[in-house]
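Q: What changes when aspartic acid is included in the input?
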Amino acid sequence: MSNRRNFIKTSVLGTLGASTLISCKEESKASAIAPETSVKKGSKPLIISTWNHGLPANEEAWNQLKAGKSSLDAIVAGVGIPEADPKVRSVGYGGFPDREGKVTLDACIMDSNSDCGSVSFLQNIKHPIAVAQRVLENTPHVMLTGEGALQFALEEGFKEENLLTEASEKDWKNWLEKSKYQPVINIENHDTISMLVIDENGDITGGCTTSGAAWKMHGRVGDSPIIGAGLFLDNEVGAAAATGLGEAVIRTAGSAMVVELMRQGKSPNEACKEIVERIYNKHKNHKDMEYLQVGFIAVNKNGEYGGYSLRSGFNYAVYDEENGNRMEDSKFKMTWDN
Ligand code: ASP
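A: The predicted holo structure follows.
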């Protein structure tokens, strides 16, 4: 924990820093009281997205759904809001770069027929989620990466642009002075936006998009573009998506496992909790444990939803007709002091 605190104190991070940390501590207190297995049910349509940037994303996706757009279009437009926002330092334009100062993006999208599209290690395209949708719709493949993904995006009419903002470049140069790589997960530098949607008919879709871990090795791909790890759904059962240390989520096929547990009758909360416990058990003696954070969100076919994280501080935005667009705290296994 002390490393993490020091990192925050001395870190190059700007807008996502101290105030978010304080609010997360307050949220953690609230979360500790709620029973971990409580089942929450929303009306349909229902949208759930990771983190605070889920609120404006949900809002946009909701408006798109209400305007009669498809769920896939709603997801692309919704998560496109944080992708385009330079203040969101973990997604799209303005995202933290890798060790070489390059912003490299991962995204994927999946529909209720189990069709999916994904891009990884994509550079200079502001909306990787929109490219992932084109992979789904216009190619015989599921996943395109790096140069090939960029070439495809250009052929599809996307424009190349520099995604490294002044702020991110400055942060990267500060980081270079020590060049110490230690992923500091949660609100500080890993904040994928994952969004799950149940439409009025009960059909489920999902997507996620991220700039991944700040200061990662050039070429590193996280869980977010990997169907089964960062995102998975089965329209007969439900959907799940992840945020946090992608390596841990990939090692455990996290989102696919959450969906399988829901298939066996677990509620979204219970399923997320069981996979977080599994990740903990696999990593408790691992070098990643000191800074390990993972969080999942999930929905099932009945409109029940939930989330669970390894450590405190994770929250998600939920939107339905009955209760509007709001933030909810995730239950968690442990605080950062453990
Ligand atoms: N899962 C993402 C990755 O590892 C980052 C995050 O959600 O925190 O790339």
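Observations recorded in class: The first helix runs from residue 2 to 10.
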